[in-house]
Amino acid sequence: MNPIASQKPTPAKLTKSSRHLVLGAVALASIASIAGAFAMRSYDARRHETAAAGGDAGSTRLMKLEENSSGAATTTENPDASSGALKLPQDRWAVSGIELQPIRKGPFATTVHLTGKVSLNQDRVAHIFPMVEGTVESVSVGLGETVKAEQLLATIHSRVIGESKLKLFQARLQLEMAKTKHELQTEVAQNVDDLLKALREKMPIEEIEAAFRRRPMGEYRERLLAAYSNYTKSQADVSRLGNITTSGAVSGKTLLSAEANRNADLATFQSRLEEVGYGLRMTTLLSSQSLKEAETQAAVAETSLHILGVRDAELSKIDPTEQGEGISHYLLRAPFDGTVLTKDVVLSEQVRPDVMLLSIADLSTVWILADLYQEHIPLLNSLADQTVHLHSESWPDRTFEAKVFFAGETMDESTRTISMRAIADNAERLLKPGMFVTVDLSGITQQNVLQVPLTAIQEHEGQKFVFVHRGEDLFVRRDIVVGSANESFIMIKDGLQPEESVVIEGGFILKSQMLAELMGEE
């Protein structure tokens, strides 16, 4: 038996503490006390209305909805003709928390509630695999530890890494030697080229020797100067004999012999110029080619280590003498700031490139995964870059935000849903991957919709209703048919008319009175 019906009426006198209990609607004993007092006031009015209506008690309590030919519920022409009336004196409204509001039509924005799942930001997840086989020498992080970009995770001893670093070291030595040789050859080539110019201009041998004494030329100096010296001597002999022959002191045959020697020395000198010039170009070309080969070998050795994941900072200080066996160390480092989610590596373990050792995720942002049903397809066009709100049972007082970055174009044939992805800031780490959240999407806004606040809605035996104010201290129950709801309002499909005044706060007091009367009649 309902405890409200079993209480005896008491005088309608409320203390200050009783008022707070009524307003809170948390103590049934206080509500029953008020309801009993109000029941005594309305008993005579109800009995009078029952007789006037000529019906039974049930028809005076509930407004009946007629079924039309299409099966839809519609109200009678006078919706209050058969409804029970409740009286509550106006001087009791304040203590009972009664608030009235005329209902009106206006824009109605629906909210779609979806179940979402928090997931890792797949763009900020790293699965750490070694690129080489080896033995684990040290592990520098633990499970759940926060790491920074480039932080050392583990050290692996790898023969492949050691051999590759030694090859790079040797290639760099060869490169340095090739550079030195090429620099020297370039200097020699420049000096010899300057000497060739001086010889072609037929500078005196003494001036040439003075100008090029401290400039390195290798064997080219001797070869060129010897030929040039022979030529200049022969030329001097011809000039000297020519003067003597004119005076008749020397025969013409001697002069011809001297000229022949001069011409031979000139040919030798010119040949030597061409030979040295060609040889110089070839030597310089070979030196340049050797330098390029050495550079290529060093670059290949360095790239091979880059492919294995060795960073430039490690390659810049390769020295077998100082590092010893440490030259074979392969260092695993964090690619970005994050948290170690999995760790499957221990000391002295043999590792391979196909076995994952650790996984790291940046939890400062997370993905929200949700599935839209077929009736939500009209929302797809407005979802791009839209901000949605998230709610979690773990944090009932918090509202989170996420920005939609993907709304699928195809429907899953098995679930008949379309995938949606959003990214949420998670700087406080409150959203845990794997937890479920409620995703609130802004629906389509309808115009001129009749609506009432959610606080106005009451329910009894599966039927939703509101209390309509009929003037002065009279209220009647009005059964309604509702539609969609959002955070604050609910759509009214049938049962109410615009501008009717309904109880939006304190309706529970009237409902308690109504139930008390119903129990009293049984």
TrEMBL record:
Domain CzcB-like barrel-sandwich hybrid: 124-362
Region feature Disordered, mapped onto this chain: 67-86
GO BP of this protein: copper ion export; plasma membrane copper ion transport
Residues of the CusB-like beta-barrel domain: 365-443
Residues spanning the membrane: 21-40
Annotated GO MF terms: transmembrane transporter activity
Biased amino acid composition, Polar residues: 68-81
Domain of life: Bacteria
UniProt family annotation: Belongs to the membrane fusion protein (MFP) (TC 8.A.1) family.
Protein name as annotated: Cobalt-zinc-cadmium resistance protein CzcB
Organism, scientific name: Aureliella helgolandensis
